[in-house]
Structures are given as structure tokens and as C-alpha cells.
Amino acid sequence: MSTAGVGSVDRRADRRDALRATAARQGLDAVLVTNLLNVRYLTGFTGSNGALLVRTDGGDLFGTDGRYTTQAGTQVPDVELIVDRGTVPALAREAVRRGVGRLGYESHDLTVDGLVGLEKVLTAAADGGAVPELTSIRRAVEALRAIKDDDEIEALRRACAVADQALAELVAEGALRPGRTELQVGRELDARMLQLGAEAPSFETIVAAGANSAIPHHRPDATVLADGDFLKLDFGATVDGYHSDMTRTVVLGRAADWQREIYELVAASQAAGRAALEVGADVVAIDGASREVIVAAGHGEHFTHGLGHGVGLEIHEAPGIGPLGAGTLAAGMAVTVEPGVYLPGRGGVRIEDTLIVTDDAPELLTLTSKELLVL
Amino acid sequence: MSTAGVGSVDRRADRRDALRATAARQGLDAVLVTNLLNVRYLTGFTGSNGALLVRTDGGDLFGTDGRYTTQAGTQVPDVELIVDRGTVPALAREAVRRGVGRLGYESHDLTVDGLVGLEKVLTAAADGGAVPELTSIRRAVEALRAIKDDDEIEALRRACAVADQALAELVAEGALRPGRTELQVGRELDARMLQLGAEAPSFETIVAAGANSAIPHHRPDATVLADGDFLKLDFGATVDGYHSDMTRTVVLGRAADWQREIYELVAASQAAGRAALEVGADVVAIDGASREVIVAAGHGEHFTHGLGHGVGLEIHEAPGIGPLGAGTLAAGMAVTVEPGVYLPGRGGVRIEDTLIVTDDAPELLTLTSKELLVL
């Protein structure tokens, strides 16, 4: 049973301590974590049903159902286990029993029905006594997750390596050639990533040939790759729950001048974006540093999305890097830089890497070359 | 762009009409559908951001963001499109503008934060006038989804065929043999399903060898397959969004008497469960029909889970078939039948098919033989 990548037992205890500190600052006695990815981050548990009660004074409780008793023992050996089909009610009853007065919960995760159910259980468990007061912790765990620890960075490094290797093998085998369809290429890329140890593709792999490459999020279809096409591949691998994300655009046969021109433009924009990834840098300014290269070349209207996003246990997470973003970078953030220029009806280029923000230059996790590849 | 499997445009219009009828019965002017799978079911839209406003008097609205403008045009050609990053606020504003007085919403899907946001938008849009009254529709769309239409059954048929074929190929190639690891077998099964046209495995494939086969939800690990092992494979393919689910247990080398005995027992229990799948049958009674075979043989304590579950756009959906279930079967339901006997430390057997409930005998979608296979 793989437990790496969600971090060692000690690392996960550190994460719970960080949440404990947040809870204490907010005057809470405990926090009920229901978001399953947040539960995974804080405990290492990879099953499909689990919740966690983090208590300010320690003595945390992890709840899951009987299917996962063994798995919980292996993955979460250091947190007291409660086995119950209804994990949230079970933890809520324990919170009352253990004297929790102010209980934090995740209002961005718990549904309207879930909150009604939680209030009922707390009231019933209090049995006429004081009912714990519920307070939202907002996205406190997501805020912790934005800064990756060493175990997480190692998982991301491996996820990026799988994607790099899968693409390298397809290129070496000549799998990207005229006559094949987008769907064939996409399925081979996915299968190759699985063979190389990915749990799954990070998202639905994008393979876009010719004019389709001008559609930012084209879904691969029966379009046949043709000589002279741009071929845009946007894909990633999930390893131990962590997602890599990369895009490369190649040319089939011979590159026309207009293709070289926009390729070099996007590459220059992408380099400028990477260079702007500094601790303390504003996400709007980073987007701007990359975007101004494209705007200056007269293609501003053809770069129709934000520059990048955080990656980790989710393919899109904090921070968003774009004109509508907010906030600054911190060391340990994992982000993508992915400018694009899309010429409707003709073709488009996107180049994307996953990187780690550090106190020095960012660490590049996507190692595939960004030179224009003509196949 | 694949639109099959979520049904033809006409089929999806039928589904919206069914929801419209439900809304009218509840005295609602419109329903805001936020659950993304429910949106997919009702519109065919497969993107990651979309919401739907179904109005009792017709004139529905579909909301998504700019990434999906083209895709929405192709997949949802028959519903008026609103392009906005904030799909729920945009649809809420339109609801006010178009005079909706009573608005249904999905309280099992909308988060606590989401409801607060929705109320704010409605109040602001009303601009001092009447604010629409919010009422939960509960799981009204899930109730519709429990009965599959012909397009959905065809997608399930194909998803089951991919899983059948992937297993057949692995068996034919001798991939299930002593010396290989559970992880290797699992990855090959997943890769094969992708090559055969699956979008993804239906869930994390279970490969459990030897004593691991006694763990109902074992995750494949580096355990090496050995002569005399039970090898349990629980897996499925997703095709056009619809999930298949099957389990087969084989023996490597030579089957011992105790292995043949529990295999035949589970096979008999599974046949009894399938035979009990009749329109109007109570889900507890169906579970009982299968379970009593195992109980009569003295293995009741070794069958530790429910008999089956509905499958469709989700791997687990209504109806649940087990001792704690409620309700009866209807024609068009897609369900699994999957009894198991698990002898801790020794090994276990589960046999699972996906079937469609009909007015006659159930239609078996999983076509792989259930004879004990010794490899």
C-alpha cells in the first residue's frame, strides 16, 4: 500500500499541528475536516470515505467505514480511529463527548444538507447540554496546502518525470506522425503514463492537431494528424495523488515561418513568466511579465487565458496566476507557467512547465526541452 | 467531440422535461442544477464548469465559462447559453430577470458557502423587488438517473464490453501468472482498457493475490502472485461517462478443494442474487436471496458487505442493494450483484456482474464466464 507522497507519518503530524495552530488562533476547540483531499493531506488516507477531527489540545480522531479499517491502520497509524459508516456524525458525537465548545468546519465543502445533519447530530449528542458552536474555518487547510513540503515536492517531481518520460518515448517511437488520430495519440500517452507508474492521467489529456491547436481546451477526437500541423499536447501524470501538468507544441513535417514566429514568441513569453516567479511577487505582475511579451508582438488578443495555477493534490489549486488573481508567491508553492497564442482557424501554441517557487530561481520540474521540435 | 452516451439531443430534452414535470409538481418556477454529473445528464455537457436553469414554462439556460464556449455549442446546441465565469450567479441573475418566484436548488450539492453566495446574488439582482424563494429539490435528478434510458444502457453495454475484453486479452496473453506483482497486473489491465477505448478506469482497480484476496478493497501493491493463489480482480471501464463494474476471481496453478468449495458457494449466491432482480423486488430481499446461500453454508460472517449498487455516471449510485437499503427495483435500473466470501489470512472470492433490470429476466452486461478459471 503506497503511503509515500502524502508524506511520512511525521510530516502529516506536522501538517495537523499547523492546522491546530490555526484553530487555536481562531479560538476553536476543534476542527472537523470533511474535504477528502484535505483529509488525505492531513492523514495520508487515500480511501473514498474519511473525515478528521483535529483538536486544539491534541488527541485527534480519524473516522472511516469498515471497508477501510485495515487501510486506515496502515496509512493513519498515529491517529485514533473511529469506524462508522457515518463518519461526520460519529466524529461530531465524539466532539460533544470530549467537551468541544467551539467547532470549526469547512463551509466551502460541507453541503447545505450536510450542515443541517451536523447540527442535528450535535444537538442530539448534547442531550440538553451545551451544543457546540459551529464556525467556518474557510479554506484554512487549502492555505496550508499551497506551500508544499519536501515530501510533496518529491511526489510532484516524480509526477513530472513520468509525463516527461512518456512524451519522450512516444517521440522516440515515432508515434506523433501524420496519419494517426488525436485520440490514438492521447490514448497512447495515457497508457504510457500508467505503464510508467502514474495512478492516472492528471486530467483528460489534450491532443490538438492543426486548426484544433487554436482551441485552448480541445478534446482529442478522430482528427487525423497531417503534415505541417501544429500538434499541441497538454497532459500530466498523477503520482501518489500529486498532479503534474505540462504542455508542448510540436510541428509535423516542416515548420512554416508563421509557426516558428509564434512558437518563439510563446517561448519568450514563457521564459519571462518563469523568470518572474519570485518569492513575494504579485500573481498579477507575474502574469503581466509574461503577457507583455505577447502583447508587444501584437498578439495580446490571442492569449485568452491566465498564465498559470497552483498544482498539488488537485490539478488546479491556489495560487491562481492571472490578471484576475490576488496574492503573492511564497517559497514552496508549486505552479504552472503556460502562456499561449491561438490563431483561430490556423493553429496555436502553448508551452507549459510545472515549477517550484524557491528563495532562489524556481526549480523546474518539467524537464522536456522547449526548443521547437519538428517531427 | 464525443457526445454519445450522454444521449442524443432529444433524449436529453426528454430528461429536462422530466425534471420540469417534477418542478411543476413541487410548485417551482425553475430549478437550478449545480451538480456537475446532473448537469451532464440533462445537457450532455462534459466540461468541468457548468450549471443549468430548468424553467417550468420552458426556456432553459445553460451556463459555462469562456473555455467551453465552443464545446457548449456542440454538446448543448438546444439550450440557450450564458457564458460567465460565475455560472451560478449568472443563472441566478437571469432567474430574477425572467420573473422566477420559487427557485429549486440541490441542497445535497450546494455548499454552505454556495448557498450564502446564491442568496446574496438573488437579493442584489432583485434590487429591492421580490427575492426568489429557495426550496431544495433534494435528489430529484438522481431519482431520474436511477432509471437508465436506451442511450445510457448502450453506453453501459460498451463500458462492460471494454472491461470484459481487457480481461480476456490479459488472460489470453498469460499476463496473470506467478512471478508478476499485483501492481503490474493492475497497470496492464488499466492500460488495456484505455487502449480499448475507455476514458479511464471506473475506479482504482483492485488486484488482490493470495491472502490479500480476503481483503474486500485491497489496493494492489508489490505482492508477487504465487502458485495456488486466489487472484481477485475488481475493475471497470468508463465509456462516455458511464461506469462498468465487474469482479472475477481466478486460481493460479491448481485449485485446492477449499478454493473450489468457496468459489462454487459464491457463484451459487451470485446466481441467486441475479435471479432475484425483478421489477418491484425489495432491495433488502434481493440481498437476502443471495446472502442466505452463503449463510446456509456457514459463511455468513465472511460476507461482510452489501450485495450491490446502482451504476451509471457514478460508480456507486442509487439503488443500494443490501441489508440496510430501502426501496424496490424498477425496469431500467443498472445494478451490480457482487457477493463475496473472505477467509482472513487465507483468501477470498468475489464474483460481480453489471446488469440491467427489465420486465423479464435481467440483461447481463458483463459477459465474462463465471466458471472457475485455473490459470
SSE diagram, text form:
The structure is a homodimer of 375-residue chains.
Chain A: H1 9-25, E1 30-33, H2 36-43, E2 50-55, E3 61-64, H3 69-75, E4 80-83, H4 87-97, E5 102-105, H5 112-126, E6 133-136, H6 140-145, H7 150-172, H8 182-195, E7 200-201, E8 206-209, E9 230-235, E10 237-239, E11 242-243, E12 246-251, H9 257-275, H10 283-296, E13 308-310, E14 317-321, E15 334-337, E16 340-343, E17 347-350, E18 353-356, E19 363-364
Parallel strand pairs in A: 1-5, 3-4, 5-6
Antiparallel strand pairs in A: 1-2, 2-3, 7-10, 8-9, 9-12, 10-11, 13-14, 15-18, 16-17, 18-19
Task: Kindly summarize this structure in a few lines.
2 copies of one chain form a homodimer. The first copy, chain A, is of the alpha+beta class and about 375 residues long. Chain A has 2 domains: about 10-145, Creatine Amidinohydrolase, Chain A, domain 1 (3-Layer(aba) Sandwich), CATH 3.40.350.10; about 150-365, Creatinase/methionine aminopeptidase superfamily (Creatine Amidinohydrolase, Alpha-Beta Complex), CATH 3.90.230.
Structure description:
- The structure is a homodimer of 375-residue chains.
- Chain A is an alpha+beta fold and 375 residues long.
- The first copy, chain A, has 2 domains: 137 residues, Creatinase/prolidase N-terminal domain (Creatine Amidinohydrolase, Chain A, domain 1), CATH 3.40.350.10; 215 residues, Creatinase/methionine aminopeptidase superfamily (Creatine Amidinohydrolase, Alpha-Beta Complex), CATH 3.90.230.10.
- In chain A, 36% of the residues lie in helices and 20% in strands.
- Chain A contains 10 helices and 19 strands.
- In chain A, the strands form 6 sheets. In chain A, strands 4-3-2-1-5-6 form a 6-stranded mixed beta sheet, sandwiched between helices. The first copy, chain A, has a 3-stranded antiparallel beta sheet with strand order 7-10-11.
- In chain A, β3, α3 and β4 form a beta-alpha-beta unit.
- In chain A, α4 runs parallel beside α5, α7 packs across α8 and α9 packs antiparallel against α10.
- The radius of gyration of chain A is 23 Å and the shape is elongated.
- The two termini of chain A are 40 Å apart.
- The N terminus of chain A is likely disordered.
- At the A-B interface, α5, α8 and β7 of A face α5, α8 and β7 of B.
